[in-house]
């Protein structure tokens, strides 16, 4: 009885250390307590300019959430531009306003209230056109159009994960710190957002995911611990990926890219 008890205590302590990631981020952060009105919302210059880009474009972005939430999670959104269109349409979910889901014209790569955006996916041409057709109908069928709960969901990441699961052209692996992505609308079992595996989740509080793109993730109270073998990375709550390869770049370029250590989804 003593050995199993010791194993349980050690395992519990190990998980507690890993789950301390958000606290570590908070302790080391130098982000001032700015009003949202004073934060940076300018374009990062990542997206192609509509005036110079005739083809259709679909991009998925993520950025640290505003204020203290950014110590724990990222906010994600989708931007689309039809072929020949003069502007992008940004699709996301927020916790303010009378309607949670928003689809509005705007710059696709603006900073999210002081936090720079990170490009998670980039589709062009015919593939983007097909995705845009599907995205419109999928957003209309989103089951939580007027609901928002920062934890465990449904929230902005629940919305983006829902769209990705329904649109086959969007082969996207969301960051493990996209809290809310594991809040499932259809029961406790579903495909992983990338479509390359499966996951089990109890309303976003507890769950397990195994996928080629996402790797393996264990969800405890919305905080995800995991490994990403393809990116040679570990995933820590609040911190994100720590590894040798960028998990969101085109895998075909890995052999041509120098291997450097990078925390892909930290500030």
Spell out the blueprint of helices and strands.
Layout: H1 2-19, H2 21-28, E1 57-64, E2 74-81, E3 89-93, E4 101-105, E5 118-124, H3 125-140, H4 156-166, E6 189-191, E7 197-202, E8 206-211, E9 215-220, E10 223-228, E11 233-236, E12 240-243
Antiparallel strand pairs: 1-2, 1-5, 2-3, 3-4, 6-7, 7-8, 8-9, 9-10, 10-11, 11-12
Helix pairs in contact: 3-4
Structure description:
By secondary structure, the chain is an alpha+beta fold. The chain has one domain. Helices cover 20% and strands 25% of the residues. The protein contains 4 helices and 12 strands; from the N terminus they run H-H-E-E-E-E-E-H-H-E-E-E-E-E-E-E. It has a 7-stranded antiparallel beta sheet with strand order 6-7-8-9-10-11-12, with no helix packed on it. A 5-stranded antiparallel beta sheet has the order 4-3-2-1-5. Helix 3 packs across helix 4.
Helix content: 10-25%
Radius of gyration from the alpha-carbon trace, in angstroms: 19 Å
Q: For the residues shown, what is the average pLDDT?
A: 86
Number of helices: 4
Give the CA-based shape: globular
Name the helix and strand elements from N-terminus to C-terminus, one letter apiece.
Answer: HHEEEEEHHEEEEEEE
Strand order of the largest sheet: 6-7-8-9-10-11-12
Count of strand segments: 12
Largest sheet: 7 strands, antiparallel
